[in-house]
Amino acid sequence: ICDSESMQNSGAVEMLKNKSTMIISHVSVVVNKNIHALYSEASDIFIDNEAELVIAAGSGAAIDCGMLLSYQSGANFTAVPCGCASALTDFDGTDYYTYRHSPNTLILDPSLIEKVPSGEIAYGGLASLAYAIDALGYSDNVIVRSLALHGAVGILKNIIPAYRGDIKALDGLMYSMYFAVASHRNAKSVHKSLLNRTAGFFSALGFSKDSVCAVILPEILEAEKDKLNSSLAEISLSLNLARHTDTEQTAAALLTEKIRHIAASLGIPRAVSGFGLTPLEFQKAKLLSDLPE
């Protein structure tokens, strides 16, 4: 299954099909940019053919789609992301945190992200950074935290040159984004975070969670600084933004400011109007939510 025209046009989908036919007698290909239509079409094929393997190639939403099909059917799952490897997609009647799990097989091909538009790199990179920071703040598992830290540092080092087309940086960014997603996927308590609750709020209004996470990240860092400051300080020290003699608060503030500058350089909007909502529409919707001021 695939939702990426660039991946289809590059021949990657055809290559995956040809490779699959070497070990599987029948292979069906479903390509649709609408993720819910993609899921519906692929689900029908799964039911009709009792499929044993799902290969999801494309955006984070496509990976989520393959993950859900695997969760529901018990089929093996292969992920081939061309950018951010998750959009935290809620499908009808199914919350992302119900079906999330790691793929049986992962294919990271840096040549795929080289074909992704710069805008998608910007949003996907910052969304992945948000996932990594959330995982650091909401997990005490050593492996999860190590993945999150490695992912966050790699994203911050590579995202600006990657956005400008630097091939080496694009390669580094792709791996770092997956580490970030993997950490978030395996952090047990992230569904309780303010990031997730806010992304869910905007998702109910029709916006993709990953895009929302990219936009709101700096404000989340400010709103949850009591919870996240130690994790932010850890990233800040790893990047040599802060010195070991700096306080945790200072180190965290330095990183938050850096993230604001990066978001501005990438053209990521800061205000509610960036989502196409007027302040009045936002306030009406917020009255029905439990989000803090």
Structural overview:
The chain is mainly α and 293 residues long. The chain is 61% helix and 5% strand. Strands 1-2-3 form a three-stranded parallel sheet, with helices on one face. Helix 5 (96-99) links the parallel strand 2 and strand 3. The protein is globular, with a radius of gyration of 19 Å.
Report helical residue fraction. Answer: 55-70%
Q: Order of strands across the biggest sheet? A: 1-2-3
Structural class: mainly alpha
Main beta sheet: 3 strands, parallel
How many extended strands? Answer: 3
Strand content: under 5%
Topology of this protein?
Elements: H1 5-9, H2 12-20, H3 35-49, E1 53-58, H4 60-73, E2 76-81, H5 96-99, E3 105-106, H6 110-113, H7 118-137, H8 142-163, H9 167-185, H10 194-204, H11 209-223, H12 225-238, H13 248-265, H14 279-286
Parallel strand pairs: 1-2, 2-3
Helix pairs in contact: 3-4, 7-8, 7-9, 7-11, 7-12, 8-9, 10-11, 11-12, 11-13, 12-13
What's the gist of this structure?
The chain contains 14 helices and three strands.
Output the keywords.
293 residues, mainly alpha, 3-stranded parallel sheet, globular
